[in-house]
## 1
Amino acid sequence: MSKQGGDQGTGKLGVWLIGASGGLATTMIVGARMIARGMAGSTGLLTETEAFAGIPLRPFDALVFGGHDIRPGSVLDAALEMHRDTGAFSVAGLEALRADLEAVDAEIRSGTILNCGATIEGLASVELRTEQRSLAEIVAALRADLAGFRQRHGLDRLVVINLASTEPPVAPMPEHEGIAGLRTLVAADRRDALRASSLYTLAALEEGAAFINFTPSNAALLPGHVELAMERGLPVMGNDGKTGETLVKSALAPMFKYRNLRVMTWQGYNILGDRDGQVLADERNKASKIATKDSVLGNILGYQPHTKVSIDYVPSLGDMKTAWDFIHFQGFLDFKMSLQFTWQGCDAILAAPIVLDMLRLADLASARGEAGLMRQLASFFKRPLGVDEQGLHAQFHGLTDYIAGLRRP
Amino acid sequence: MSKQGGDQGTGKLGVWLIGASGGLATTMIVGARMIARGMAGSTGLLTETEAFAGIPLRPFDALVFGGHDIRPGSVLDAALEMHRDTGAFSVAGLEALRADLEAVDAEIRSGTILNCGATIEGLASVELRTEQRSLAEIVAALRADLAGFRQRHGLDRLVVINLASTEPPVAPMPEHEGIAGLRTLVAADRRDALRASSLYTLAALEEGAAFINFTPSNAALLPGHVELAMERGLPVMGNDGKTGETLVKSALAPMFKYRNLRVMTWQGYNILGDRDGQVLADERNKASKIATKDSVLGNILGYQPHTKVSIDYVPSLGDMKTAWDFIHFQGFLDFKMSLQFTWQGCDAILAAPIVLDMLRLADLASARGEAGLMRQLASFFKRPLGVDEQGLHAQFHGLTDYIAGLRRP
Amino acid sequence: MSKQGGDQGTGKLGVWLIGASGGLATTMIVGARMIARGMAGSTGLLTETEAFAGIPLRPFDALVFGGHDIRPGSVLDAALEMHRDTGAFSVAGLEALRADLEAVDAEIRSGTILNCGATIEGLASVELRTEQRSLAEIVAALRADLAGFRQRHGLDRLVVINLASTEPPVAPMPEHEGIAGLRTLVAADRRDALRASSLYTLAALEEGAAFINFTPSNAALLPGHVELAMERGLPVMGNDGKTGETLVKSALAPMFKYRNLRVMTWQGYNILGDRDGQVLADERNKASKIATKDSVLGNILGYQPHTKVSIDYVPSLGDMKTAWDFIHFQGFLDFKMSLQFTWQGCDAILAAPIVLDMLRLADLASARGEAGLMRQLASFFKRPLGVDEQGLHAQFHGLTDYIAGLRRP
Amino acid sequence: MSKQGGDQGTGKLGVWLIGASGGLATTMIVGARMIARGMAGSTGLLTETEAFAGIPLRPFDALVFGGHDIRPGSVLDAALEMHRDTGAFSVAGLEALRADLEAVDAEIRSGTILNCGATIEGLASVELRTEQRSLAEIVAALRADLAGFRQRHGLDRLVVINLASTEPPVAPMPEHEGIAGLRTLVAADRRDALRASSLYTLAALEEGAAFINFTPSNAALLPGHVELAMERGLPVMGNDGKTGETLVKSALAPMFKYRNLRVMTWQGYNILGDRDGQVLADERNKASKIATKDSVLGNILGYQPHTKVSIDYVPSLGDMKTAWDFIHFQGFLDFKMSLQFTWQGCDAILAAPIVLDMLRLADLASARGEAGLMRQLASFFKRPLGVDEQGLHAQFHGLTDYIAGLRRP
């Protein structure tokens, strides 16, 4: 049962998902509706634990879902496909939610694939692949989608979350550093200097929505976006949700430091088979992902061990991401030892609850008038913006300290 | 190079090891001498990291080693055996230390096997197996060994560390609760109510030595011993050094809590082949070990998952302890996932530096007049006395907070 | 699509399962009906591969199922439970088979728990736990069940397969060595000298059925039973289906021999959570299982390495048996190396097709008038009766040679 | 103790190693000398097992070693480096062999790096990097080295073995198909059409030596070389010794076939840190290796699963090659299951005895006048020339059948 309370209790919160037809969005939507209807418990949701008791978080039955995607599809069909693939959900449960899910389908709009690379373009609808709109026109269309959503449902507040497939990294430009620069690029229709995610974020902030970048795409939350968020009094955070191998890495790596054991090598081999895996099989898109995964160890250990993170596409796995990590380390008298682990997790199942946690916390931050980076969410990200600390435990205490601060009079 | 400083800088610290001929004691002694002679670096030693800069810790060349054992043997021979088994040390390095190690051999005395179980007795010398001394006579003899050691070397201070093989657990008795009770048991020659380790600790404290119980044997540091330490102004700590599977467990388990992932099962299978493994093949002795290993998860998670910890004797492994842990957990919508790890570490190599760390910190605590349980050492133990917290990270911060406190004026 | 041909093509084959309500029987029955109705392919079925082309094997739509069990339950309910547990089957598929499965339910009779140990008795219906019948009465009742089944369906032939939970091992007695002895024990109502499985087999053979013991229970196929099979011209085989860790072991162990690598240690840790796991948590029942698993290595390697096979009950796993094996071996110049593997398989899914393969091959052997041990089935068993060879590859060639023999004019 | 017998018993066999200063050659030489001197046993040597009893194989004390390399270095130094890295050999043992090893050093000559790629060239001596000889001059020089070796030691017979680092693959040309073509290429000084290994083999065969290509380099044993071997009555074999992950793969893959389990995916991740690993970090050289590793599964299974074999250079591992393989397969009713294994082996230790086995068997084949491909050695190679069968067990029976054939009158 979800908690009630505070000023969030009475109205509705709009949750707008970029990548609304994907496995993660599907899992979030199905899960949130199951919880709202009392069909599922709260495993995986941190905001439903004792640590958050008494904090006024939006209840699950007050969430209204919509979003953008680049290919047609219904939430129910996507959920049935996940069921066949991984065994997640029950068919009977999905049937009971049919009307709820169809209502979400009615709120999914066509987005943009601007400068996303050939692999993502190959997944998109014909209309998007052949579109001729200017950047300014695209932003205006995205804004109109958000405004319509807000109006149709009489929403209290709006949170936009980027769950789209990983774009190739964008090379930094001076114009990215401030909101004025971003606006210049849009006005000049500089299609090479931005990517789809840059436009989604602009539209979200201009429409007064909080924004979370759950992907590694660095174009989604540029310094200029953060400047705009500060101006508008909106909270934002990114990049790249920490759900699997990197989560384990950030929990384990401090152990070596606490014992002055020297990590010589940390190899990480990831295999997965969902649409994300397919996009990551494109070397250009993969570069974004590897970059955020690889930055954790040097930060925690204080030196850079030999390290490699690889991601391979293995269709038979579907969404069951499997990772093997091999850690070679030296102990006393330079003796060599090793630790290896195999992680077998369902990506969407791991990510969905932390996205739900974060949107509730973004809603809370908005209600409190907090603007700019939500550093308290660092433990949820592979590369938390504005936070140097990469150790999971220290990051987690950043969140519990924040919550404790809310309880003080 | 080791640090200098404070009142420890000038004199010698006696280090008396119960189990002085075992692999761990051997590794400690060889390692400390190599560091003192500049033949080895400080990997694995926390007290040599930046976090301890400026803290007045005893330098390695001021440590003098001696100890008790229950079977004859030289440190050099034990080190050569470990070299053959695991590849630790170089033969040339050991040769260079020959005189140092022979000096330690001259300070090893015969101890006691009182009530240690048949397996430990089987390892002991004939003299010990057939001895007729009363408990009071044994304590007196142990004390005389310590006093002689202190006198021969003009020691500043003495730390006694229990590294002996695991004894069977002793059943709690009212007499264990206070020092008066312990003294009554000794006077009445109640051989069933105490074990060898109880007598070693008594002798140590009566002789004014700090004491550390690195083993799971619960008879080594009874409440009565702690009372005596308080009376005499001596620091003590135990139980059971945390070096392998449990170390990883205490680093990883909090991750599940930070994500509200429900651990259904945590199975841990340990295999090892050294003398400790041989003793643990005896079910009675193993009971002590399993008890301390098994208490970690419920404490960290807040509920008790299905769990099993097994230890099997595999002679071919020698001291290369290998552990496979399988963790089965539920995420969002009760979806089942798993994490497994394989740990391959050399037990003595992992334990030696933390024993060296702790004896330096016990020396420091003694110098500062701190008496009773050294709770700041919790991160080094599987079952830290007087400390509820089992998460590695929180325990580690207990130590860094203690050190930070020393720096304040 | 299944193959047609030979004298088996026209009539019906009765398949009588001891343990008819268990997960394995359920999977067999559901699978066979799905194949018969064209709803499933032939993965896992060796008899449907090219190697068996042209061999006159009974088609799947000619199989009629019935059996004994010791607790009430329907096949459909058991299948739905497996679906929830492991994701096997689809709910829609099971619904489509509802009538087929109800027809099987109508052919399930109450069996016997004679001398099966407390854990199995605890699972049984009240009637069985309190029954007063003599051994002769039980055998007569079991025979009547088989005869009725044969008659109701006008069966061509009957195969009985023991899939019941593992019994404790029975100690060898002179009376077990011949059929006369077994009959004496039954007549004298010697309840301590036989177990339930001994009676099922007697009944099967007396009724002219071929018999397969898929369990480790050594009471199921005693020398006396084999003598009776020879007399009656009936084929039989056992013991203990080879489906998981032991299958891998028997495939891998020869590799070490082919390279003269010396296996020092082979540890195998099995964890599983189904009803079999629950019964094996009872040390007496487990003894049977461990015995058959442990005999493989010495046979293949020609010497006995240090070895341990353990089985632990882990409820969260359900039928997803997981095994970790650690193999420590010496190569050239006695250098130590290791291989470890983790097997994650669904027991019923692995076992069902080989039981189906074997019953078709038993039917074939019966048609050909082959009596006594079916040594050609050795590759399917952990302890194949009458066959010394334990290497998987050599065993498999025993089967392909047999099939090749059938093709010769 | 090695066996005596036959016409090999009296004289000396010359063993000429291409890559004589590498870890594998070092291990072979040290091991052979230790066995000859009774300092080591025969673990890892198949030719010393019961299966070869009575076969007239050259005793170890009759082997005389020499070879080519491309960088200066002594066998003793290389052995001491391996000792430091992996713990192989004892320092005392190596000291006892000092004179033997220095005698080998005196028989090591500078070879050629023709067209081997930048990474191998970077390892070579300055002289080789700047040499100006024509192909014909190089072949002549190599031949002279072999002739001198044969003469100095009065050798009975000569076997040349290619153990050099992996070259990039050579693209097939019509001239490679026959010995006439190869000679044309040499005469025309076509440096792009051949690689170093092509010249070593030519020299060996022209000098009447048997030849074994233990590397993946496809230029070492071209069809033209085999034609020349047939003409000269010399036995040859290749390619690429099967020592680690592929060995396990070829032992395990048949298991899936024997149960009609469908392998969907077989991913193999190899990490290693020796000079071979360094050369394989060059993508061009790696291409040869991946090609031979990847061809095994399709052959055994009869269909091509999704598969990837990667090799990464991890310096901290030295020669301790570690591989993680993940096998995803479908069983009955298309249920998905998995098997994963981790192999931790010392490459040189695994390879040395099979090279020793093969040179003895090549010597035997030479004595018997067998010319051309030694198909009986298929089980030792990743891509055995002239043999389709990739299953380890069937390949091994090819060898035992050959030996059995020798015993028949």
## 2
Amino acid sequence: MSSSGLLEDLVEALRCLPGVGPKSAQRMALHLLQRDRDAARRLGSTLVDAMDRVHHCEQCRIFTENTLCRWCSDPARVSSQLCIVESPADVLAIDRATDFRGKFFLLLGHLSPLDGIGPKDLGLDLLESRLETGGVDEITLATNPTVEGQATARYIGDIAARHGVTVMQIARGVPVGSELEFADGGTLAVAFSHRTRLS
Amino acid sequence: MSSSGLLEDLVEALRCLPGVGPKSAQRMALHLLQRDRDAARRLGSTLVDAMDRVHHCEQCRIFTENTLCRWCSDPARVSSQLCIVESPADVLAIDRATDFRGKFFLLLGHLSPLDGIGPKDLGLDLLESRLETGGVDEITLATNPTVEGQATARYIGDIAARHGVTVMQIARGVPVGSELEFADGGTLAVAFSHRTRLS
Ligand SMILES: [Zn+2]
Ligand SMILES: [Zn+2]
């Protein structure tokens, strides 16, 4: 890259961002140089800082720069209830949308033997030792409603049951506000077999 | 942002990128933390480096970290021909698509009295002193085919004419490979009035 220079290096470097191709990388680089150098410098140093200092919470694997994340270190949250999710975005979504006030446990993926992702990669040894220690009465499985997510949920449910912990799973069914005719067959089948009495 | 932490700072900082809203900023931050920390560190340091060291070429205002850009410093390019463009992306596009082998001059915008953008903001004093010095025989106006771009081209054409420099303008007309019925009326009118004899 010697002949091309720093602008081209920047365009190339921006392509590490998901969904950013050569054209939008170029547009981003020129925009920052022309209009927003201070914000770009701030982004640059924040990137380096975050990559160096953000790691996983010791208890739940959520990203944090501290030993414990803000959920685990929040004394107002109930430690006896644990919600198990696949991705950090799920934590934020559940925190925003529901009234769950327990703690989380983050898998950062799902079981996938073909990709070599086993229980240890999901931190299930950490989860198991936490269940062993006691203090957790109930776990709620909130993995994705996919084949892999469900297999992972079943696997974790078995571990929890062995430790005498109540196992819950978030409901699957037709999404609120959606139209029935657009629901896929699998969702409809689940919604139908999980039907509840109205009154 | 004390309670939210470094991950949230990173999500916020990513929003300086054009076209990046809160959701994609979050997706980018999590992707980098989970999968590409080295690339993210490299992006971070390249950003800071580029913002600190990239400035405008002394001769043509193209972005470079050197005194002269790679076009101005290329002895293989003809100095007597100058192509005038509005944006850095135009330089790259013309360089890629055409056989123009002269040098460029970058306006970084167009005349816009209402926004307070006058000749000096486009570097036209620099351009004029370059024409005065001599050595430029011909300029090609390649500003955008918009009202503002055309007004800017006319203004620059007048300056060049005063210095006895030949003024060319890139052709306007229907885009190659497009279908006539989808061309807008203005383009069609220009294409028609600029029609040329075929043989
Ligand atoms: Zn935690
Ligand atoms: Zn230059």
